[in-house]
Amino acid sequence: AQHRARPPRQRPAGGTHQTMCALVAVPPAEPVRNPELYLHLSPNIPPERVAVLRELVRQQPLYACIVDSEEGALCVLPHFDIEEVADLERRRCRVIGLPMAERLLRDRNVMSQVHALPLFDFIFRAGGGAVCCSGLQQAVRMRCASLAKYMGAKFSEDLGPDVGLLVTSRVSLHPESKYQAALQRRIPIVRPSYLEAMWEAKVEVRLEPHMLPALCGLAICFSSLKAGTEELNRLQARALAAGAVAEPLDRAEVVIVKDVFAPLYNDAQRIGLLAAPPLWIARCLELGNCVPVAGELEVQNPRSLQLKLVGGPSPAPGPTSASASSSVALVDAAAAGPGAADGEPECGTALAGCVINLLYLQPGEQRDTAKAMAWRLGAYTTVCPFDRAITHVLFKVNPLDKTATQVSVQVDDDRVSFVDIAWLETCAQDGKRLPSSTFLQARVHYNPVCDEAVKRGDAGLGGSAGLHRRPSRALTMATSDAMLPLPLPLPLPLPLPL
What we know:
By secondary structure, the protein is of the alpha/beta class. It has 14 helices and 18 strands. It has a four-stranded parallel beta sheet with strand order 2-1-3-4, sandwiched between helices. It has a four-stranded parallel beta sheet with strand order 6-5-7-8. Helix 2 packs parallel to helix 4 and helix 8 crosses helix 10.
């Protein structure tokens, strides 16, 4: 009576075994897959473009979705404002443009072509290469780098093998500059206006209106051409129209002179400026690029520098007898004065005692002209680098080239001067010996094994005749490569009678 009656326990139909089998037979739920793209839409996007994006997302829910938070999502902007993009980047947000978002939703393979963010759209042509900048102010350079990234191009600090466009505001003559390297590789060189025009149009534009002018920003001294002909004046006007800047000698990078005897040429050599002839300007304007001052574009020596024999030019051989020929020669020698019988030109003594090595000058006209000037001043010349009497070694020094030349002449600062050819030209012009220390000095390194001039055999150093220097009395006006024969040995004295 004290215990309440309990109702009997009811068992489920089918028993316990059947119930467990029913639970095991239920298939497991599929795992939820997260989308690859999370897009956060800017409120400034037009409604019709938002509808297009939502429709594209609805068609592929496992690939993309639109979220309300910008954290971890791609922020989609209809326009790229520099300040707005910079503010999003400070908040560590990834930013793309509205055209790029539509491109990603239509083609999933586009993501593999993205170099960096922020990215507005692929405006640069496919395969156009990276963009490199040179010679720009810091603010302009940062602007160009940002625009290149916004338009889908890769930005490179160096002119690497993948660079396809160089952006700069001026030309450069430095042999190691990016400008000269781009010329060698035929890479298009444009002004920053090219990127600005492309960004403004949001499509690729033509290169030609934005190509860098041939002499843009180059400081040139035209002082020696003020009294020139009308043709030279027109050439100067064309150079200024091509972007050149007329500057005095102390602020110029290049000085234009007609020949090596122009006063400005010597001044330019002393202070390390490049000197170029008017032909160099004409060639730059013709090619549309600032080409190096080398080869035929260097300042040349005028052909009037060749020495004149006192007795006049040698008569042509004719059918005269030996006695008549000797009589004519004696008359010409008497009329010409002392030394004419030997065919010797007038020569001074300004460089008497100097032994000048011409091995490192270009064979041909340059070496022959230097030889004529040296002989005119009474100096000895040689092409043998092992002559211990050498006092001067001549070079055509490029003031912008800092590499050292491997030479076989023993380097001795107290005895040998490795000097630019301008020293000899100035001595010939002034008729006196000038200190070589006031002219450009060649950078040399004593290393006979790596001496390219000796390896080429420019002066035939393999023969014994090539090892002898030649004085001014041996002047024949032949090329420097033609060696003079060895002098005949003196006869031995006869023995004295016992």
